Request: fold
Amino acid sequence: MRGFTVLPLLFLSLTAWGDCTQYLQTWAQTLHPTLKLDSEYAVCKVNPADASQVVAALPMKVDIDEDGHGHYGLDVLVADAASGKIIARSYQHAAIISDAMRFSGLGLDTARYQVAPGLRAFGVRISHSGSSRVNPYGSETLSLYVNDGSQLRRIMGHLVVSESQGEWDGVCTGEFGETKRTLAIGKPGKDGFSQIRVTEVSTGRQAVLKGEDDCEEMEVKSGTKMFSLDYDGGRYGVPKELTYQ
Reply:
């Protein structure tokens, strides 16, 4: 993979830094006075590209019912670390759907996404999980944002970086599958933006009952695919099969 910088795509949870969490409710109330912040999932952390700034993601309840079903708005912002003053932001009114596949997590990914000379992106990860015990499901998507002066712009949306699913009898017998995707950043290309290469690794497992109480699990298939994401002048195009449906 010559010419590409491999990124580990670690899930980066909320870390305490200068107590940026003190600003979460203030930002939410100022920006969305008619909506309620889901404080359980709101996150913020220092921007490693500029230690004087913090980045944050605020999930706002648009029409969430008592069962947790409905839509969330998502406000992603960059703010001054000392004062909490917002520098740039991007808001989507119905960015997250929570239904049979329930919204279950939000994270900030500040790996070195150097998408262009002098321009480093950061990521927002959204997790969903299913509620069925015999048909387990989980997924995590990644979107990338860049700060163009006073505007925060999403340049890649909802790439599924992990997905797991299965079907079993609740005791032992069943089949399970998992897909993981990692990113590598290439050299600057069109419009100065680098190509992003996605490596996909899929594995399948099968569990069978041996005897009365011996559950045996084995790998039944595995495979690797490669995808290239090009910048089209506004954002990176993500193939439909790699997006959250």
About this structure: Residues 138 and 215 are 23 Å apart (CA to CA).
